[in-house]
Specification:
It is built from 17 helices and 7 strands. By secondary structure, it is of the alpha/beta class. Strands 1, 2, 3, 4, 5, 6 and 7 form a 7-stranded mixed beta sheet that branches. Helix 8 (204-213) crosses helix 9 and helix 16 (405-421) packs antiparallel against helix 17. It starts with 32 loop residues before the first strand and ends with a helix.
Length: 447
């Protein structure tokens, strides 16, 4: 959720490229080209580098890329697609935007393209990912480039030294107990890292998964706001108390990047966050490579609680080049592209998390064997339309799939981050947040 989300999470910790247009060349003029607006994370940069010598060479279709940081690209995509200006044929959108854009009529449904493309293999796309890119009308409006979920990462060597064993599917209570016991296990080491940095895709991403499994929800099916309900309060107090007692230094400012640094530098023994982090922690130059264990997202009342996020490609409804645009989307989201990346750049750079066949590749499993199975299980177990104990009015696990959530989630996160900092209480933060959520709910109850 770079958003941290989630999917754009890597952009926060790796060097970003500046906007770049005109990558392509080698065949095809303006009439046989497409314009692609894309987030600047590392996997997308790899795609940009591989396009001319592979996709363009094979199809004669030139791809003109515009590559921007996440916040900038979201704004630009929203502007172009909402006005149906048609400047860009294809853009990277997430499973948060896809159903919203589809409802607004901004995207081309892809079902007919999929039906005619025998090599694409839609059935190979992981069901939760496919479901999250399907709109209320039952049609698919985007295809995934990569996906992620969330799980628990922990220092197996530290737990072993304390005689502790992490369950494969721990409860949050078990995690809290372990965090207390490993706090201080090594000089300067805290028990766990949990995001406290304000942001709908920062603090609210992991916290909302905790709320879900504690039995809470942002809104009931009939749009009653529930932020100061007992279950939401219990979950938030648990999270705030845990990070205040055994969490990282500077927690109110800690997001994905800060927790990654803490884990890499041995300053925390556990970390609950995006599955994409595992590849960074197990990289050849990581000080903690080979010392880690991985477990499913902790639960309380639900069978699973992991979030779901994907960066995907959607085709603008106003595009006059939908057929060529689909050829690019099919190539970038297909099994053949994964094979290309593995052969040319290395299997650890695969844009994974979207296809079942990825987790059957011996080369990929050899590169990510320590965490690949747990990551696949986390994604497979994610339930974007049924993440809690009650029915929801909108899809989403770590977010509520409505346009207002970016602002609402950010405002609520600021109040809860203040509780982590000790400048307010959880009760006060959630009472204020309830009023904000109620204003949003009133709009939907009237529809």
């Amino acid at each position: 959720m770079k958003s941290l989300r989630y999917g754009g999470l890597l952009a926060a910790v790796l060097l970003a490229t500046t906007a770049c247009a005109g990558a392509g060349g080698g065949g095809g003029g303006a009439g046989n080209s497409i314009n692609v607006l894309m987030v600047n994370n590392p996997q997308m940069q790899d795609l940009q580098k591989l396009t001319a010598d592979n996709f363009t060479k094979d199809t004669g279709i030139t791809v003109n890329f515009t590559v921007l940081p996440e916040n900038d690209v979201r704004d630009k995509i929203s502007q172009d697609f909402s006005s149906q200006a048609g400047q860009y044929d294809v853009a990277t959108i997430s499973n948060y935007e896809t159903p919203i854009y589809a409802k607004n009529g901004w995207l081309t449904p892809l079902d007919d393209h999929v039906a005619k493309d025998s090599g694409f293999d839609q059935d190979d796309v992981l069901e939760p990912i496919r479901q999250s890119l399907t709109a209320a009308d039952g049609k698919v409006y985007a295809q995934p480039f990569y996906g992620e979920s969330s799980f628990l990462m922990y220092r197996k060597d530290v737990l072993d030294a304390k005689g502790l064993t992490m369950p494969e599917k721990p409860t949050w209570q078990q995690v809290a107990e372990i965090a207390a016991r490993v706090d201080g296990a090594q000089p300067g080491m805290k028990g766990i890292c949990l995001r406290g940095q304000p942001g709908w895709g920062q603090l609210m991403a992991p916290l909302t998964t905790v709320v879900n499994t504690f039995g809470g929800t942002w809104f009931t099916k009939d749009w009653q706001a529930r932020l100061n309900a007992p279950e939401f309060k219990e979950a938030t107090k648990f999270y705030v108390d845990l990070v205040r007692a055994h969490g990282e230094a500077g927690a109110p400012q800690a997001g994905f990047a800060e927790c990654l640094n803490n884990m890499t530098q041995g300053k925390v023994a556990m970390w609950y966050d995006a599955t994409v982090a595992a590849g960074l922690l197990e990289a050849d130059d990581s000080p903690v490579k080979g010392k880690l264990g991985f477990a499913q997202a902790p639960v309380v009342k639900t069978d699973s609680s992991a979030w779901l996020y994907t960066w995907a490609f959607g085709i603008q409804k106003a595009s006059k080049k939908a057929d060529n645009a689909w050829k690019f989307v099919s190539w970038a989201s297909g099994k053949g592209y994964e094979e290309l990346v593995g052969r040319t750049l290395g299997w650890s750079k695969l844009p994974d998390g979207k296809r079942k066949s990825t987790y059957q590749r011996p080369e990929y499993l050899a590169a990510g064997g320590s965490f690949a199975e747990q990551a696949e299980a986390a994604i497979a177990g994610a339930k974007p339309t049924d993440p809690g104990v009650q029915e929801r009015p909108a899809s989403g696990i770590q977010f509520v799939g409505i346009p207002e959530f970016t602002d609402l989630g950010t405002q609520v996160s600021q109040k809860i981050s203040a509780a982590i900092a000790g400048s307010t209480t959880v009760d006060a933060a959630l009472d204020e947040s309830q009023a904000l959520a109620e204003t949003v709910a009133e709009k939907y109850r009237g529809k």
